Amino acid sequence: MGLAVATATLAACKQDGETATAVTETGAIQRTEAGVPDIVYVNSDSLLANYEYFKDVRTRLQGKAEAKEKSLRSQAESFQKEVQRFQQQAGGMTQQQAQATEQRLMQKQQQLQALQQSSGNELMTEESEEMKKIYDQVEAYLKKLSEDKGYKMVLTYQRGNSAILYSDSTRDITTEVVSGLNQEYETEKADTTKTKTPAKKK
User: Fold this and answer.
1) In angstroms, what is the C-alpha Rg of the chain?
2) pTM reported for the whole predicted model
3) Where is this region: Disordered (predicted)?
4) Full set of structural domains in the chain with CATH
């Protein structure tokens, strides 16, 4: 099951005017007073490949998709056996029995098709919701990081599908972002585990 992530330009302006940037006569954007570039970028491919929350979500969704596919395949195989039995026994049935069996099989086929479609829609909806959560978490972290570092804009870069054709590697903050996001996720998982663990009775 493929997971597609929506990428967009994330902007976060620091409120402190002391780190304001200026444009030189050549059009180049100057660095902040602290020597930190004011425009940086994140490689979305590397981010998703190394973000533990995304990997956990992907594994869980793939597991659900495989389980649903297995269930649907089992039901389809069972239906096919019923059809084969009907074809073998149709000669010994009355016309009324044959028509009733055909109608029942047609209804069952429609139910299986509807189940297959609803299962697919359910997975797509869940995937979309999970990707929105991931995007919101990344955006929130980048906003906080930008306020701390003085970044004025954080761009996203994806090889072969990006407006950024070249940039100085010092503007790549992917590793820092992945590390920070993973640290937050580990803390969140630890807090969730503590909450779910029942207290021992004294």
Assistant:
1) 27
2) 0.69
3) 183-202
4) 17-194 (3.30.910.20)
